[in-house]
Amino acid sequence: MTILSEAMTxxxxxxxxxxxxxxxxxxxxPELSMQEQRTRTRIAEQLTSFGYAVQxxxxxxxxVLEAGxxxxxxxxxxxxxxxxxxxxGLPYASTHTQVDAEGTEQPTMHACGHDVHITAGLTAARLxxxxxxxxxxxxxxxxxxxxxxxxxxxxxxxDGLTDKIPAPDVxxxxxxxxxxxxxxxxVSAGPVMSTAASMRVVxxxxxxxxxxxxxxxxxxxxxxxxxxxxxxxxxxxxxxxELAVVTVGSLQAGSAANIIPDRATLLLNLRAxxxxxxxxxxxxxxxxxxxxxxxxxxxxxxxxxxxDRFPLTDNxxxxxxxxxxxxxEQLGAEHVEEFGRxxxxxxxxxxxxxxxxxxxxxxxxxxxxxxxxxxxxxxxxAPDLQPTLTIAAEAATSAVLGLLRRTV
Length: 408
What we know:
The protein has twelve helices and 18 strands. By secondary structure, the chain is an alpha+beta fold.
């Protein structure tokens, strides 16, 4: 006995070609965060055709479907791509470009698997619409923009999400990942995704000819000192019992070999599983940057900006137990693993937190056992088309049905 009825299971198989075609189209046409106009239109058209009451909120799309009395369950899928040049070599690889918010034309790619998330979300929405006799309650299909910049969930909430849709009793979400293996899912109670923040730091020097360094304050040397010193925030200032990550993802200065520039820009990314540790990292970055600037005789104070803050993703124990039961009943215990703590981050929890609703967020495997694996955000990130699409849709649908059929 599985969560999905025989009729729904048959529909899932029948819709396989449709889901694959949808996925290929989405993969070929990724869009940057908060600029997902084509994607949003496709989602709204599909949900409307399934019979959902559809509205656009804060750059995202929400469809609501009622099937009698019962709880309200919200399933969220994120929809944005990344400014990455695809290098998968796939016949359906993205060649799409898009002008970003700063006016720069960028290559775009679904390098984080959000095309899988959209396809699974729409497949689940279709199955639930076609088989309303199999469940009772209200289903909310939410497609969120701007996850990669931690902007989309906040934008939807600020645009009145909590007043425009039925308040969910439970919120759900999932993400395609390099592990577990394709065909499996991973779910755990408690913290599963870290809190995160990005920082932009500009340090100032005095430019000079490359042959006359004594007349300069070299921001390249200053920035290099900062990069090295930042490593001590994890290695020497954070307890080994705590998780902390400090990454300098970009260091830009100058454009010629014989010119010492007058400034350098660093882009940082911070991760932690504790808000106190996160604040310690942020204040530590500020302290080190200011101290190194003073030591280097920087002619003016540094510019330090904290941006793109992600909350901790902390799964509710009761909801997670119900989701695990449903996934196990549908997929089999051998296909359900422990999620553990990932160092990636999500803004998903801002949606349930806005409603005061408990939630569960789980992982879906995207790479076959033994296959070379590439991480999310890699230009070579390419989940196996199948069984990934089918398992992701099956997991989403069965988790929703498990909650709509049971009292959590």
